[in-house]
Amino acid sequence: MTVGLYGGSFDPAHEGHVHVALRALRRLGLDEVWWLVSPGNPLKLKAGRVSAPLADRVAGARSLARHPRLRVTTIESRLGTRFTLDTVRALKARRPHIRFVWIMGADGLAELHRWRGWRELMAELPLLVIDRPGYGARAAAAPAARRFARHRLPEARARALPRTAPPAWVLLHGRLDPRSATEIREGRRPRPAAAPPRRPPPR
Ligand SMILES: Nc1ncnc2c1ncn2[C@@H]1O[C@H](COP(=O)(O)OP(=O)(O)OP(=O)(O)O)[C@@H](O)[C@H]1O
Ligand SMILES: O=C(O)c1ccc[n+]([C@@H]2O[C@H](COP(=O)([O-])O)[C@@H](O)[C@H]2O)c1
What we know:
By secondary structure, the protein is an alpha/beta fold. It has a single domain (2-186), classed as HUPs (Rossmann fold, 3-Layer(aba) Sandwich). The protein has 10 helices and 6 strands. The protein is globular and about 40 Å long. The model has no long low-confidence stretch (mean pLDDT 94). Residues 8-11, 16-17, 20, 104-105, 107-108, 130, 132, 177, 179-182 line the site of adenosine-5'-triphosphate. It catalyses: nicotinate beta-D-ribonucleotide + ATP + H(+) = deamido-NAD(+) + diphosphate.
């Protein structure tokens, strides 16, 4: 079984998140994508940023992630982990038969070198990066992209990513989604409405 781990604050969740999760599901042919609603992004906590309560963020994500292969979870709060490296190691130990892939937007790759143990994380599981307006070039030139340049797979080989030994990563270009939680919180975009159920993706 192959599972994409999609970590985020989801404060609030929006259609950009659904776009990322469904692209990952389809391009990689994953069995499931698990949304890991973070109890607190360590970098945001350090900067003193306060998020909405976890239960509210989970409820918002569930109202959007209406697809049989998308699961919105509170795994990190249940495990008591905050750093992604700890979460991934705990999940791999508990579910040794699952092939995990980490999923993030291009802004995440641009910042990855600020995460605790980011080099070790790259050695734990493959990474899928989905391009995002304004971040593609920064991501491709970021310290993590340079450090792991020789482990980058071409987009055409994205489907092989879940079964490729880490470190391995792909930056997927293509249709971009401009939505962001910051804009929604600042009132520049309306809050997302609950979406109707979706049909399963073509396999
Ligand atoms: N429109 C988007 N396109 C690509 N990736 C996205 C998009 N929106 C969010 N992501 C990715 O989803 C993950 C979770 O993002 P997060 O919950 O922080 O939302 P956000 O819109 O980036 O929020 P904020 O504006 O508060 O930083 C991150 O890896 C982020 O890069
Ligand atoms: O492990 C870290 O040091 C780390 C630092 C920053 C962010 N993360 C994770 O990155 C994911 C995206 O966070 P966010 O707030 O940008 O949506 C989420 O799962 C965070 O826990 C992890």
